[in-house]
Amino acid sequence: MPTYDYLCAACGHRFEEFQSMSAKALRKCPACKKSKLDRLIGAGAGVIFKGSGFYQTDYRPSSYTADAKKDDSSPAPAPAGGCAPTCGTPNAPAGCSMPKTKTKE
What we know:
Elements (H helix, E strand, L loop, with lengths): L2 E6 L5 E5 L18 E4 L21 H12 L32
Antiparallel strand pairs: 1-2, 1-3
């Protein structure tokens, strides 16, 4: 059942009334007793979803989160071709883990 806002055009009294949707609008102001009430158009209440089951992620299997954690913890692969243009050559920087190949002379 919705809550309706009312405003009296005679005295300016404003109030809310909890009524069923099929109930007729009130006409008589409870403050001044004149028949000058207007039902106001309100924005209504926003819908609030509480609990689980309202998001796509709530239905994901536990293996999905386990795989996501595994992906986050694994180191990034080395870029193709090495870390420097000279990787894999005799002129490779110190600490290069790429195996050195012999160059043709």
